[in-house]
Amino acid sequence: GAFSFYAPKLYRFYEKNMNLLFKSNACLHKNFWRGVFPAASFNCSGQAFTICYTNSLNLSYGLCAVWAGGSYDPKQGGHLILFELGLVVEFSPGATIFIPSSIVSHGNIPIQEGETWVSFTQYCAGGLIQWIQHALRRPARTLAPQI
């Protein structure tokens, strides 16, 4: 889809690492048949919005996919704010936006009363990639010292 088209090298990196992970343990399964993101979150609260934040545990050079849904006027609210870039992006229901959520502070504008806004986000933790790339075990520096 869109991820493989707009960021093909990064997509292939995710795909390669997720294939290694899933081949290493038959108990693990992809969230979605053709998906390359190992994690997903649903926000179904109806009117949630976020203030300036980063997802510091996500892969620092990766992207996360954010899908917006609901019934709201995208001209009046629901905009995505990318603070360091100085951008406010209209985020229509049904749209997906890819952002480097671990390094760019982001948030969104509240919607109007009586409207609904939900989201679905897919992402990859940086620690998972480290673990996969270090022979599917924790890097030694993260182990607690022996006492």
Please tag this protein with its features:
147 residues, alpha+beta, Double-stranded beta-helix, four-stranded antiparallel beta sheet
Topology order in helix (H) and strand (E) letters: HHEEEEEEEH
In CATH, what is the class? Alpha Beta
Sheet bearing the most strands, described? 4 strands, antiparallel
Q: What fraction, in percent, of the residue positions are helical?
A: 10-25%
By CATH, the architecture is named 4-Layer Sandwich
Organism: Hydnomerulius pinastri MD-312
Protein name: Prolyl 4-hydroxylase alpha subunit Fe(2+) 2OG dioxygenase domain-containing protein
Summarize the structure.
The chain has 147 residues and is of the alpha+beta class.
